[in-house]
Amino acid sequence: MTTTKANLTEFEQKLVDKAVEAMERAYCKYSNFKVGAALVCEDGEIIIGANHENASYGATICAERSAMTAALTKGHRKFKLLAIATELESPCSPCGICRQFLIEFGDYKVLLGSSTSDQIIETSTYGLLPYAFTPKSLDDHEKETEERTHQK
């Protein structure tokens, strides 16, 4: 759903602001495309991340995965909300790798924002990657394989 920052809760507005602030920590000397992220963990802790590029583009770390891996390293495994910001007036969606990485930890709200406009896209991890391959897919496979084995 497309909305404006004014329609968010005060907490969500501050979270988008934190994502915008995180953009300033980006190392993006190749693309000059700054991205910031602010992740809310289940216990309420907020962890930020920024994109960090490398001359070998494949080694680049996106802001979303930067925040998520920092949270995982601290022991967090459940998340409530993620805000992502770029300089584009129209909010930008995470790349495919980030979408897959984020959905590994369930369905939670995602706010896509901008440092140059008040435009916001409200979605969720499942909204970003419908029909996703998730840990449940592996659990279902194991269960179905076992059921087929027992039917023989």
Structural key phrases:
single chain, 152 residues, alpha+beta, Cytidine Deaminase, domain 2, 6-stranded mixed sheet, 6 strands, 36% helix, identical protein binding, CMP_dCMP_dom
What is the distance, rounded to the nearest whole angstrom, between the alpha carbons of the first and last residues? Answer: 48 Å
Largest sheet: 6 strands, mixed
Q: Can you list the strand order of the major beta sheet? A: 1-6-5-4-2-3
**Gross geometry:** globular
User: What integer is the average pLDDT?
Assistant: 96
Helix content: 25-40%
Sketch the topology as an H/E string, one letter per element: EHEEHEHEEHH
Give a count of the beta strands, DSSP E runs of length 2 or more.
6
Number of contiguous helices? 5
- Shape-level CATH architecture: 3-Layer(aba) Sandwich
CATH class: Alpha Beta
Q: So, the CATH homologous superfamily?
A: Cytidine Deaminase, domain 2
Using only C-alpha atoms, the radius of gyration works out to 17 Å
Q: Given the helix and strand composition, which structural class is it? A: alpha+beta
Q: Strand share of the residues? A: 15-25%
